[in-house]
Amino acid sequence: MRIPLSIAAMSIIAISPAQAKLSAPEAVMAKTVDAEYGRSVALLQRLVDQNSGSMNFAGVEAVGRMVRAELEPLGFTVVWKPMAAAKRSGHIIATRTGKAGAKRLLLIGHLDTVFEKDSPFQKFVRRGEEAEGPGAGDDKGGMVVMISALRAMKAAGTLDAANFEIVLTGDEEDSGDPIDVARADLIAAGKRADAALDFEGLFVEDGKDMGSIARRSSNSWTLTTKGKTGHSSLIFNATYGDGAINELARILGAFRNELPEPNLTFNTGIVAGGATAALDADGVRATATGKSNVIPSTGIARGDFRTLSEEQTARVKAKMTAIVAKHAPGTDAEIVFEQGGYPAMAPTAGNRALLAKLNGVNADLGLAEMQPLDPLRRGAGDISFVANDVDGLIGLGPASRGDHAPGETVDLSSIRRQAKRAAILMTRLGSGR
């Protein structure tokens, strides 16, 4: 999942022969990507036209079959891993063994989109070098870049330069529960890998491609407050105290005043309070009853917060817990941090080193150096589950805008430069360069 960003004023970036410093196999990879551009766009259309909302289990599996048909001819052993235990469709796991001593590369993407079967936004529509459609950028465009790069490596004879494990989850946009079951295969793959490459979308700022070496966490919380109910004329006295809603307001206000620090965002998404208040089982709908002359007995709020490291996550949880514990008179409160969130991917030295290698590829392709993207610009993602075990890069997919909303639009021309970057980078990483 990623936060949409405009790609206005973008154009096709060609390789300048005067600048290019590619080996003969790398030049073949670049030419193959260009030659197969039409094939890549056609594949993207087929993937987009198959609905694969996270809860459309059959649709997610159908997209998995399409990807299998692309990977098996390249020598990958492809397995469909059902995820009924996590109440989701399943994942594609594909492996390919390279030459002895080759590095192990983990490639990450996802089969599902946020657009379910009942969404009015269902079809691929091309307009020149752009196309809109559900998942056109996030993440069906990313899978197309991945496949284009692997096909280019095959054509150049470099596919054996690396050992590959590909994990394409079927529930990145709405992760299964329990999360330790839903992400077990990905986590295990991360422990085996020497580098991880995430094929979610490329970010472009002011016309410049950005490198992504960090993603923030996603942590959900539920706050419940209690007060003594009675006639409103008695509120704030020694017997009845402040009431549940005032206690809820105190805590949320303190969050706003006391929590802010670099790289942290926090949000309250839903609130209810009154004589009675409750959230539904999914935590997305609230009900409440109350009267203006009755002190409210219950308050409830649900929200999230996002951090750049697990240390920051622990610190923020401790701050929130301490704020909640300072009860107003006559009230009680409890905060519960929900299991199953996305961990953080910190901007480590190893991740920076991978971006430096990618910038070496950029230099040899005659492309501009990619500066690190501010992690506040990205949402949470699957690569974070392996971030403690392996160095990684994010954003190997195409550039797009309007992700997660009707009208999601991919810059088709970016597929070519991203596939060239990925193919050459994977070849060099696999060879230990």
Automatic annotation (TrEMBL):
<dbReference type="InterPro" id="IPR036264">
    <property type="entry name" value="Bact_exopeptidase_dim_dom"/>
</dbReference>
<feature type="signal peptide">
    <location>
        <begin position="1"/>
        <end position="20"/>
    </location>
</feature>
<dbReference type="GO" id="GO:0046872">
    <property type="term" value="F:metal ion binding"/>
</dbReference>
<dbReference type="InterPro" id="IPR001261">
    <property type="entry name" value="ArgE/DapE_CS"/>
</dbReference>
<dbReference type="InterPro" id="IPR002933">
    <property type="entry name" value="Peptidase_M20"/>
</dbReference>
<keyword id="KW-0479">Metal-binding</keyword>
<dbReference type="Pfam" id="PF07687">
    <property type="entry name" value="M20_dimer"/>
</dbReference>
<dbReference type="GO" id="GO:0016787">
    <property type="term" value="F:hydrolase activity"/>
</dbReference>
<dbReference type="InterPro" id="IPR050072">
    <property type="entry name" value="Peptidase_M20A"/>
</dbReference>
<feature type="domain" description="Peptidase M20 dimerisation">
    <location>
        <begin position="213"/>
        <end position="330"/>
    </location>
</feature>
<protein>
    <submittedName>
        <fullName>M20/M25/M40 family metallo-hydrolase</fullName>
    </submittedName>
</protein>
<dbReference type="InterPro" id="IPR011650">
    <property type="entry name" value="Peptidase_M20_dimer"/>
</dbReference>
<keyword id="KW-0378">Hydrolase</keyword>
<keyword id="KW-0732">Signal</keyword>
<dbReference type="Pfam" id="PF01546">
    <property type="entry name" value="Peptidase_M20"/>
</dbReference>
<keyword id="KW-0862">Zinc</keyword>
